[in-house]
Design goal:
Strand order of the largest sheet: 4-5-3-6
Mean pLDDT: 90
Distance between the termini: 51 Å
Radius of gyration: 29 Å
Keywords: Membrane, Transmembrane, Transmembrane helix
Pfam family, one: GGDEF
CATH class of the largest domain: Alpha Beta
CATH superfamily of the largest domain: Reverse transcriptase/Diguanylate cyclase domain
GO molecular function: diguanylate cyclase activity
Largest sheet: 4 strands, antiparallel
Bound molecules: guanosine-5'-triphosphate
EC number: 2.7.7.65
Shape: elongated
Catalytic activity: 2 GTP = 3',3'-c-di-GMP + 2 diphosphate
Number of strands: 6
Length: 312
């Protein structure tokens, strides 16, 4: 979590300097109050506010990358921190009667902070909408971070089965077909061997992005196993699913993968297999999810065999 803080070194340094200037100038210009003059209840309340602002600020920087939302929220919290910090300092330091700047520091940053936070939250809402749009093809109806694969960020086979079960129930009730498309990288073992596992991982990640770009909004992409992806195609008949499979094969075949240790791009092929549950192809009631997946895997295995025979 704290790795992210490294990207915000300048902001952290700036807030550190600002707080120090504030503390040192207040101490230099005023006298400390005696114990009897200090209202400990105010100290607890205002100190708590300062402490919370500081914690929020650190959590914000530790959990978010840089960008407009982070900057607006950061400056919003920073304004709160400066204003409540001055409030706290005034509890322990007595400034000369004529001093006015401390009142300005207590009151002016607060509304500015509120305004910045409000704009930041609005931007955050728009940002979240854009992220949801991207996530839709990865998660469809259910979000479960425990089922996410570390390499590609896609959901795993168990999640796929859960989603497929829901999809089949809804689609059958509406009389719509559902297809599953399995896609497997050819000779991935060789890619790993020639380029190394790290580059193999990178190819998996880049193919994930490519597939996400080339499926429809309503489809769901999961990592089924190793170098195998599964795509749930709601409201899609067998013929359409097969056409989509051909298109995805073409897209992958033309994708230029640039391995780190090579100047030239490499091109890799994939094989696919589809299976459909629909009016013309009904699966048995007993475990339709398992049947659909094993049919798609079977067709994929056949496609692999045909490819090997063609090369030979
Ligand atoms: N880099 C990387 N490799 C993986 C990962 N998961 C599985 N693999 C490797 O992927 C390979 C998959 O093996 P296969 O599908 O049998 O081999 P293949 O060479 O693609 O064979 P065909 O599918 O028949 O063309 C294995 O060598 C696994 O070690 C991963 O997360 N990252």
């Amino acid at each position: 979590m704290f790795q992210q803080l490294k990207n915000h070194g300048r902001k952290l340094a700036l807030i550190f300097v600002l707080l120090n200037v504030q503390i040192l100038s207040t101490l230099a210009l005023g006298d400390s109050k005696s114990w009897q003059e200090i209202d400990w209840l105010d100290i607890a309340g205002e100190g708590g506010a300062v402490w919370l602002c500081l914690v929020w600020l650190i959590v914000l920087l530790a959990t978010r990358p840089d960008g407009p939302v982070t900057r607006l929220l950061f400056w919003g919290f920073a304004c709160f921190l400066i204003a409540s910090g001055q409030d706290l300092l005034d509890e322990v330091v007595r400034l000369p009667e004529a001093t006015v700047w401390n009142h300005a520091v207590e009151s002016i940053p607060m509304p500015i902070g509120m305004l910045l936070m409000s704009i930041g939250l609005l931007y955050w809402y728009h940002e979240q909408q854009a992220l949801n749009e991207q996530l839709r093809k990865r998660e469809r109806r259910l979000r479960d971070h425990r089922r996410l694969d570390k390499v590609t960020g896609l959901a795993d086979a168990q999640y796929l089965s859960q989603q497929l079960e829901t999809e089949l129930t809804v689609a059958r009730a509406e009389g719509l077909p559902t297809s599953v498309l399995m896609l497997d990288i050819d000779k991935f073992r060789e890619i790993n061997r020639n380029l190394g596992m790290g580059e193999g991982d990178r190819l998996l990640r880049e193919l994930t992005e490519l597939l996400l770009l080339n499926i429809r909004r309503r489809d769901l992409l999961c990592r089924y196993a190793g170098d195998r992806f599964a795509i749930v195609l709601p409201a899609t008949c067998q013929t359409m699913a097969e056409l989509m499979a051909r298109q995805l094969e073409d897209v992958c075949r033309h994708f230029a993968f640039r391995a780190r240790n090579s100047d030239l791009a490499q091109f890799h092929t994939v094989s696919t297999g589809v299976a459909t549950d629909g009016l013309d192809v009904q699966l048995d009631e007993k475990d339709p999810v398992e049947q659909l997946l094993s049919r798609a895997n079977y067709r994929l295995a056949k496609a692999k065999e045909a490819r090997v025979l063609k090369v030979a």
